[in-house]
Design goal:
The N and C termini of chain A lie far apart (about 70 Å). Chain A is α/β, with parallel strands linked by helices and about 280 residues long. Chain A has a domain at about 5-10 and about 50-70 and about 100-265: Rossmann fold, CATH 3.40.50. Chain A has helices at about 5-15, 65-70, 100, 120-130, 135-150, 165-175, 195-210, 220-225, 255-265, 275-280; strands spanning about 25-35, 40-50, 55-60, 80-85, 90, 105-110, 180-185, 215-220, 230-235, 240-245. The longest helix of chain A has 16 residues, at about 195-210. Chain A is globular, with a radius of gyration of 20 Å. In chain A, a hairpin with a 2-residue loop joins strand 9 and strand 10 (about 240-245). Chain B is of the alpha+beta class. Chain B folds into two domains: about 1-50 and about 165-295, no CATH class; about 55-155, Alpha-Beta Plaits (2-Layer Sandwich), CATH 3.30.70. In chain B, helix 2 (about 20-55) runs antiparallel to helix 7, helix 2 (about 20-55) packs across helix 9 (about 215-255) and helix 9 packs antiparallel against helix 10. The longest helix of chain B has about 40 residues, at about 160-200. The chains are: A alpha/beta (about 280), B alpha+beta (about 300). At the A-B interface, helix 3 and helix 4 of A face helix 1 and helix 8 of B.
Chain lengths: ~280, ~300
């Protein structure tokens, strides 16, 4: 059985239990975050994300995208407001429970954050070992997820032997191997070239189609506009735009179509005419 | 499953961080060597100093015409009514004559009679009290000369010129040794903790990633602790081997010639070795586990 089907089944099972049904996976209510230096990371942010959504957080550097990510993984505490994830208030989460909470999140970073002294296989397996996964489970799941991310041939390579795109795929595989209900990615394509970025976005989209909620922070406006997904735009720590159906296509598209969507040409850049030509014309 | 996993993780990181591991082992070796040499040296010197102090005596000479009743009275006085008295040994006229005659037969051949008095050799309860004891037995009178507390006592002596010197000299030796030992122990602890901190600092990113994946503190910590224990044990074994070789090659042949080396009061080699081994393992394991705390706050 393909991993995506299995994951969809798993989500259906949890959805069938009424106590597990939550309207919103993520809920920010009036959240503010002031750093010790006095800078405001986030001001009065209120939004919610439903189960199965694919959401972009966009904004310039310093607009508060990463702050939201850090708050979501409970690396920081908000100075005001409340954050609920899957119905649980993060403020009430005990420090000791944080590792267990993080196991229910998939986290992808711009700088991959792979363990440099482990092979691709071991990096992904570590996420399972952390939860006390047994050898049998690891042997079943890891090759599966690596096949999904297209890394079957790189099993025994070390991270520094891989290209940036491949490393990010490993990071995504590690984030998804536990089948988390929520996957957050902070600038997952920040270090990658456009074509590789499309590959990573396709991968995230494929994961989203299995029912996982995906939140992606990025500053790549062009890519976001082409993807026609929900967009939450931040500026100076404030939510300035929350378009639920920003050019949203209601019908499902396949991963291939999705990729084609991303490759659609953006408006041609208007460049100044070459001064050399002007010179030639004059004489 | 859990333990074997942690052990595997620890061995992996020893392999992959060969240079920091080597530094850690080297610092443990140096520390254990220094301690292994200094513990017996300090013990031997303080033991020797104590032995010298043990020889500090107060001699109570009775008058030559003292009767057995006088002897008995003074004995009771010394053993029951005087403070600071440790041990009282009675040397009678005849015994003293016999001892001295053995030491210097010609001189005593010339003497017809026995000129020696009955003597009590009094060992003070503590070497430091020798002078106080003397003052008690022979208090200084208002005129500045010494009187005695019993008419039968002729003189109280404690080889006075020596005693003061011995007491100060041994005190200085002991103090110097303890200071040196304390300094070395502090230096060793700093060396080990520094090495551990450096090798952990180079791996703080790794710890950060582990936290983000959802590892609990102890899940991260155990491999580090096991690694510390393994490296500590390795360093301890190397140092102990060096100590053993040098003991057999250098110290043992000399032991018969130098009383200080053969001093029976030093710690036995097997006890020393097991203490050092236990200390190196515990310190490295605890050090690794505790130093990690700072990096676990992610």
């Amino acid at each position: 059985m393909a991993i995506s089907e299995r994951h969809a089944q798993q989500l259906d099972r949890t959805a069938a239990r009424p106590d597990q049904q939550v309207p919103n996976v993520v809920e920010f209510r009036g959240v503010s975050m002031q750093f010790n230096s006095g800078d405001m990371g986030l001001e009065d942010a209120t939004f919610s994300i439903r189960r199965g959504e694919f959401v972009f957080l966009v904004g310039h550097t310093g607009s508060g995208k990463s702050t939201i990510m850090r708050l979501l993984i409970k690396e920081h505490e908000p100075t005001a407001g409340s954050i609920r994830v899957a119905g649980h208030d993060l403020a009430k989460l005990d420090r000791k429970k944080v590792p267990y909470y993080r196991r229910n999140l998939g986290i992808v970073f711009q700088d991959f954050k792979l363990l440099p002294d482990r092979t691709v296989h071991d990096n992904v397996a570590y996420a399972l070992q952390v939860t006390g996964g047994h050898r049998k489970e690891i042997r079943a799941k890891v090759p599966d997820i690596l096949r999904l991310t297209g890394l079957s041939t790189k099993l025994h390579n070390f991270p520094d032997q891989l290209s940036g795109g491949e490393q990010q795929r490993v990071a995504v595989a590690r984030a998804f191997v536990n089948h988390p209900p929520l996957l957050i990615a902070d600038e997952p394509t920040g270090n990658l070239d456009p074509e590789t970025s499309i590959g990573i976005m396709q991968l995230l989209y494929r994961i989203n189609r299995t029912g996982t909620t995906v939140v992606v922070a990025t500053h790549d406006h062009a890519m976001v506009d082409r993807m026609r997904r929900r967009v939450i735009e931040l500026n100076g720590g404030r939510v300035v735009r929350d378009e639920l159906t920003a050019g949203y296509r209601q019908d499902e598209v396949s991963t291939g179509e999705f990729g084609a969507l991303l490759r659609e040409p953006a408006p041609a850049p208007r460049r100044l005419p070459d001064p050399g030509d002007l010179f030639d014309d004059a004489f | 499953m859990r333990f074997s996993f942690f052990l595997k993780e620890a061995m992996r990181s020893v392999n992959r961080n060969a240079i920091p591991s080597f530094a850690a082992v080297a610092s443990v070796v140096v520390t254990v060597l220094v301690l292994g040499v200094f513990i017996p040296v300090v013990q031997a010197t303080t033991g020797a100093a104590n032995e010298v102090r043990g020889r500090v005596l107060v001699d109570v000479f009775l008058k030559t015409d003292a009767k057995p009743a006088d002897v008995q009275r003074v004995r009771v006085l010394l053993s029951q009514k005087t403070k600071h008295v440790g041990k009282v040994q009675y040397v009678s006229k005849a015994d003293a004559y016999k001892q001295e005659k053995k030491r210097n037969p010609e001189a005593y051949q010339l003497l017809g009679s026995n000129p020696l008095p009955d003597t009590f050799r009094v060992t003070p309860d503590k070497a430091d009290n020798a002078l106080a004891l003397r003052d008690e037995l022979a208090p200084i009178s208002a005129s500045g000369s010494r009187t005695s507390i019993d008419p039968a006592i002729d003189k109280v002596e404690n080889r006075k010129d020596q005693t003061g010197k011995i007491l100060t000299a041994t005190r200085v030796v002991k103090l110097a040794m303890f200071m040196l030992a304390a300094l070395l122990v502090i230096a060793s602890i700093l060396l080990i903790s520094n090495t551990i901190r450096l090798s952990l600092f180079s791996r703080r990113r790794e710890v950060e990633v582990m936290k983000l994946v959802g590892a609990t503190d102890w899940f991260i910590r155990w491999p580090f602790v096991i690694e510390g224990v393994v490296l500590g044990a390795l360093g301890g074994v190397v140092a102990i081997l060096v100590l053993l070789v040098s003991k057999i090659a250098l110290i043992d042949p000399l032991a018969s010639d130098f009383a200080l080396i053969a001093s029976p009061k030093t710690i036995s080699f097997s006890l020393l070795v097991s203490l050092l081994f236990a200390a190196s393992v515990t310190v490295s394991g605890l050090g690794a586990g505790l130093s990690l705390r700072r990096f676990l706050r992610v």
